[in-house]
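User: I'm new to structure prediction. If I give you an amino acid sequence, what do you actually give back? Let's try with this one:
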Amino acid sequence: MKKIITIAFAISLFHNFTAAQWVQQFSIGTPLYNVDFVNQNTGWVTGNNSVILKTTNGGQNWFYQSIDLGYPKNLYALDMLDANTGYIAGWFETILKTTNGGVNWNIISNVPTNAGNSNHACTFINTQTGWVCSSLGRVLRTTNGGINWDTSFADNILRDIQFLNAQTGWVCGDGGTLFKSTNGGLNWIDHSNISNSDLDLFFLNPNTGWVVGEQSNHIFKTTNGGSNWDTKAQLPGGSLMYSYCVYFASPQVGYVGGTYTRLFKSVNGGFNWGRDVLSDLGFINNFSFLNDTLGWAVAGGTIIHTINGGSIVKVEQIGTQLPLAFELFQNYPNPFNPATVIRFNITNRTHARIRIFDIQGKEIDIPMNQLVNPGSYQIVWNAGNNPSGIYFYRIETEYFAETKKMVLIK
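Assistant: Good question. You get back a string of structure tokens that encode the predicted 3D arrangement of the chain. For your 410 residues, that looks like this:
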């Protein structure tokens, strides 16, 4: 009994997420909205209260870049063209530009709080030509580095915009708003027929793109420039379990982020998605990847980083019949090398978390952390990066918690 009590105490004491798939690099006490890296060392992050952060060593250290906008602004949009030139856009007409890596941010547009449009996203194809979308359906275009801007209108509140070249671009927003332009944003063609959810989008090229529905959690894909959109998947959802952003690092490898550290990864172009489990950091608002494995994301007020593309753990429902009781089963095989199956029963809709601890009681992984419906489930935990030894796995729900022992022998 004494040994069990000691282990339980250690488990409650060491509650630090240490899995090496996504690493927390930097945290502040305000939400962060966007991240953009131009190479493996140099990147920027923007956020609430006019926050602009920069790193020159891959995120090991971050420093603030100051800007006086008169009022604290939410800086939602960020697009860096290279290590010197980039643009930021945000609430109440804010548009900023740098030509020296952020040493100075020049104010192109800015009005007092609660005046004018709020800019939500920007996209640039070179240092001179770019677009900004905002509330009230407005799209701005510049072809001379922000000196002058043309104005066009799509519809509704616009949340995201992306141009692939000087002519072809997309914009999306609330209530299923989705428009395409083939003349540089002068006119917009309505494609708002795929979803009623608020939308976010990402295109790899003029033909291939994805859209995610915030409330519905549906993933849509086109391979012919939007002539057809296919529903590829629906991510697990529920009350306030939303999907905010979609990003593809390559034609096969993509990510979706959302509320309560909802992070999903696909390795087959969006057909199937696995949950990439993180500790509770907040809402994931954006990604920046340099290739399939090297990337960054902003989650709440935290910047996170991966060098291996993250770790996918699939939560598989193996039965829908209502179990008689909550139950955590013994893993199998046990002993194991390097993977083992962990099964459990859920009798009420609840948020369930599985945590893994070593013999010292130090938390080493959180392979599951999500809302689940009643039923029987299993996950496969891979200990390929861990040494032989005794480990403990623990399930925690609103109604039930239990810990069991397992042995890894290599």
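You can read the tokens as a compact description of the fold. Here is one thing that stands out. Residues 1-20 have pLDDT under 50 and may be disordered.
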